Amino acid sequence: MSSVSLWLIYFHMFEEFFGLTAKPFGKTPDPGFLYESAQHGEALARLEYAVEEKELSLLVGEIGSGKTTLSRALIDRIGDARPVILLINPRLTPTQLLRSIASGLGIQPARFRNELLDQIHTKLFELYEAGREPVLIIDEAQLIPTKSTFDEIRLLTNFQLDDQNLLSVLLIGQPELETRLERAHYAPLRQRIGMRYRLGPLTLNETVNYIEHRIRVAGGSRNPFTEDAVRAMHAISGGIPRVLNTLATTALLDAFGDDAETIDVSRISAAAREHRLREVPPKDERIDHVHG
Ligand SMILES: Nc1ncnc2c1ncn2[C@@H]1O[C@H](COP(=O)(O)OP(=O)(O)O)[C@@H](O)[C@H]1O
Ligand SMILES: [Mg+2]
């Protein structure tokens, strides 16, 4: 049997053992698992509003803080109301960017920039008339190679009719994206940003709720992590969900392997060592138990 299928059997047993029906701490940005911390909730509400207002918006946060998950939740909320063009690898020249957008709009992209712009323009007017202005979401926007591509994005936001924008644009990226846009020659783009949100880490209380939330969504009925284990996870991860997930998954598998029903701080330490994460001592902070 391949190691993959062995792993799957192992995982199914693990899920049964903890009463879970799905992987509680998967790596994918699945919006079904979205925990609306104060920040994630506010970011999502503001993004929704910015999209509706057809603004240019900016969402930044550290790696693993939940940006992509939020974008997927946003796309779910937009539903079929408006077409969404999602670019997840924006290492694109201006012309490549326009081609991707044209494709995203269902157009067979022309060869040259001017024709592409004509095509996109025509399509945007059509969609505007139908009340279905598209939403352009660019994830990992810090990877955009040159200012010329950003200029092209800015020019797209210039398309207007009756003082109305024809397109909502959301730029998502790591904090260096915001730093880059601070540079003087990015001022014209920066001045167009109507909404910006900086996503920070989860607090200790939110970390408790985050873990309980994901277990509940995965069908689990009890939280196997002790309070000290959660404190350790929060300290080691710095409140970054992706790191919490890594620690939680490793510790859960480890506990299952030992037939242990609770996960204490020693298993979190072991998981941290396995992933070469620095062990940070937890702060002496109170946990307010608010169960929802
Ligand atoms: N608010 C949240 N609720 C549930 N899961 C989250 C949340 N924020 C992040 N995650 C999880 O953490 C991991 C990293 O999130 P992701 O959205 O990919 O981060 P980023 O895009 O900022 O690097 C994913 O597994 C994601 O499901
Ligand atoms: Mg991401």
Describe this structure in words.
By secondary structure, the protein is of the alpha/beta class. The protein has two domains: 13-30 and 202-274, Orthogonal Bundle (Helicase, Ruva Protein, domain 3), CATH 1.10.8; 38-199, P-loop containing nucleotide triphosphate hydrolases (Rossmann fold), CATH 3.40.50.300. The chain is 49% helix and 11% strand. The protein has twelve helices and seven strands. It has helices at 3-17, 38-52, 67-78, 94-104, 113-129, 147-156, 175-182, 187-190, 204-217, 227-237, 241-257, 265-274; strands at 56-61, 84-87, 135-138, 160-161, 164-165, 168-173, 193-199. The chain has a five-stranded parallel sheet with strand order 2-3-6-1-7, with helices on both faces. The protein has a two-stranded antiparallel sheet with strand order 4-5. A hairpin with a 2-residue loop joins β4 and β5 (164-165). α10 (227-237) crosses α11 (241-257). The protein is elongated and about 65 Å long. The two termini are 43 Å apart. The mean pLDDT is 93. The structure holds adenosine-5'-diphosphate (ADP) and magnesium ion (MG). The site of magnesium ion has 3 residues, from α3.
What are the key terms here?
292 residues; elongated; 12 helices; Rossmann fold; Helicase, Ruva Protein, domain 3; alpha/beta; 49% helix; five-stranded parallel β-sheet; single chain; binds magnesium ion; binds adenosine-5'-diphosphate
